[in-house]
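Q: Structure tokens for this one, please.
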Amino acid sequence: MAGQGQQIDLAQLSAQQLSQVKKQLDDEVQHLTNSYQNLRTAQQKFRDCIVSIKNGVASSAEGKPLLVPLTSSLYVPGTLADTEKVLVDVGTGFYVEKDVASAQKFYEGKIEELGKNIKELENIVNSKANNLRVVEEVLRQKVLAGGQQPGQAAAGA
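A: Here is the predicted structure, written as tokens:
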């Protein structure tokens, strides 16, 4: 595995080695794309939390009946006891009581932080995808120049 930032002269690699590099890059791009989707999902959940605070708590009257989620698919009936304070999941199963404005600010900070991480990850994914295209092109040229069957050269992919 090449270290980050290490450059390899692709023309010096055999078709089999290029296939291995291609497979490694494919795996990395797939993993990074999954991570990107997970960050986007988390960011949307934080946005949903803000919407829930604005629409569900801030504008509601105390004692209003509602459904409380125990899991993603199990809800129990409850009543809203306090419209000024909410419980905020700060991670790893810990909840902190915050006023509505502080909770919104907390979630907005999380959204902004995830946005920065998403931007960085986009740049990395684009870079890896460009590297993958270059490797595929060099592999294609090697296969054509060597007279090999594409299936034999890419057998490791």
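A few notes: The chain has three helices and four strands. The longest helix spans residues 100-146.
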